[in-house]
Amino acid sequence: MKPLPFLPILPQRPEDRSRTTRASIRRSLALGLTALAFWSQDIAADVTVPSVIGSHMVLQRAQSNPIWGWADEGEVITVSIASQRHTARTKSDGKWKIHLDPLPAGGPHTLQILGKNALSFEDVLVGEVWLCSGQSNMQWNVNSSNDADIERLTAKFPNIRHITVPQVGTQEAQNNFNGEWKQVTPGTIGDFSGVGYFFGRQLHQTLDIPIGLIDNAWGGSSAEAWVRRDLLEADERYSALMARWEKTESTYNHESELTKYQSALKAWQEAAAVAKREGQATPKNRPRPPRNPLTNQHRPGNLYNGVLNPIIGYGIRGAIWYQGESNASRAYQYRELFPLMIQNWRDVWKQGDFPFYWVQLADFRDEKSEPGESDWAELREAQTLALDRLKHSGQAVITDLGESHDIHPKNKQGVGKRLARLALAQDYGLDIVARSPRYSAMTIDGNKIVLTFTDIGGGLDTFDVRTPVGFTIAGDDKRFVHASARIVAKNTIEVWSPSITSPVSVRYAWADNPICNVQNREGLPLTPFRADSWDGITIDKH
């Protein structure tokens, strides 16, 4: 509560009272009433909107876009832009919402919101809006990508706008965040998502319309943190996962852990001081501050509430996603969890089955000389399987863009372009090849297996050397060996090994860091696959 305003006081001294006229009394009372009126307005709730609605924002073209905010119950709110004017009355929960009529690409416009106070947002554009989400490889910024210096110097695209949602992990649904829309300039783009920017830049340069990018990625995040918690609790497939978290939630005490850390740190500092006085090496294993699992990026529902909920409903064309590394040890579970997450987002956004394109895991870890099992291969398979379950979906295969000893490959330009191909072909109608070739069927021909593929573009091809590399073959003993292969038609590859006389299955690029080279003539890598359905190493991991 603010203090009462200063009110004019009527003269009290006799000599003043004798000179006070009725007119002066009326003026004093009027001033006092005016001050009270201003004070009353000041303590009333101002009309406010979430940060995702503001100057320099981009509205999604050719669709109805919600604009919402908060005010006093019953307050009438007027929203205007271009030639449109809409009104709404604030509900008992303090929230109001209107829907703008579809607008064509262009601008700039001014968005005005009027209630007991007025808001005016300038330089509002209309174009294509995409959500950029996932874990660290989506969060990985332009400054840390290839050719960062050149990318910053050439980042002069005032009609590309971006906004970042700060990282908040919580079980309480957040309605807002601290952020603002920015134009892409050499000074603003460095800290923004590299994949997001390179994706958006390709769209902008191709379509020649404004682009809006919303980044809410969080490094290391698990898929279950992005799902509404009650959906996980209601599904017995996640009972073991939820039981582990319920135990953590009931037993973890962050204050106690901080106390233990401070005690351990003090002991280490004392030992370090003694070592320094005696000319000895500083002790290793300096204690690290505890990380609170209750507010991290793994707890089920934490990111859905903390970084997704504040933007749910904002008009978008679709989403791009780069995540999976944190779920690789539970790859079979991801087969169901990943589609559940996407459907959850689509349901709450109320924009139908909006496009959702993801990046398959890159090649990573040491190359292996012999065929074997791989949780990363199983996670890639889980990602690919989602293509058959979800409409308006797509996958960017990047087994040629990774780095064996860096989980964050720096070639984000290539990743962004492959995602952009999907959007340009599937959402904007351009006649370009967008999908990687994908395994379709196999037949056994003596000691050979003949494979056919879909989405071959201009036809199957190889990179670097003419011979296809990356195939393994097995008999019914399930022991895989390296196989020879050759392309026998635009969509067909023949695979064999002299040591396998009765083959039953073939795999391709089935490793953490596969050595492989098949692609289509447009340079999109063949999607890793296996022709068998034998149990994998993560089948019982929950």
Count of helices? 12
Derived from helix and strand composition plus strand pairing, the structural class reads: alpha/beta
Overall mean pLDDT: 93
Annotation, overall tally of beta strands:
23
Distance between the termini: 51 Å
Largest sheet: 11 strands, mixed
Percentage of helical residues? 25-40%
% residues in beta strands:
15-25%
Radius of gyration: 30 Å
Low-confidence stretches: 1-43
Overall shape: it is globular
Fold and architecture overview:
By secondary structure, the protein is an alpha/beta fold. Among the domains are: 1-43, no CATH class; 438-530. The chain has twelve helices and 23 strands. The protein has helices at 14-19, 22-43, 136-139, 148-153, 194-207, 229-233, 239-251, 254-277, 302-308, 331-349, 375-385, 412-426, and strands spanning 58-60, 65-70, 76-81, 84-89, 95-100, 106-114, 118-134, 157-164, 182-184, 211-215, 318-322, 356-359, 393-396, 438-445, 448-454, 460-462, 471-474, 480-482, 484-489, 492-496, 505-508, 518-520, 529-530. The strands form five sheets. Strands 1, 3, 4, 6, 7, 8, 9, 10, 11, 12 and 13 form an eleven-stranded mixed beta sheet that branches. The chain has a four-stranded antiparallel beta sheet with strand order 14-15-20-19, with no helix packed on it. A hairpin with a 3-residue loop joins strand 6 and strand 7 (118-134). The chain is globular, with a radius of gyration of 30 Å. The two termini are 51 Å apart. Mean pLDDT is 93; it is low at 1-43.
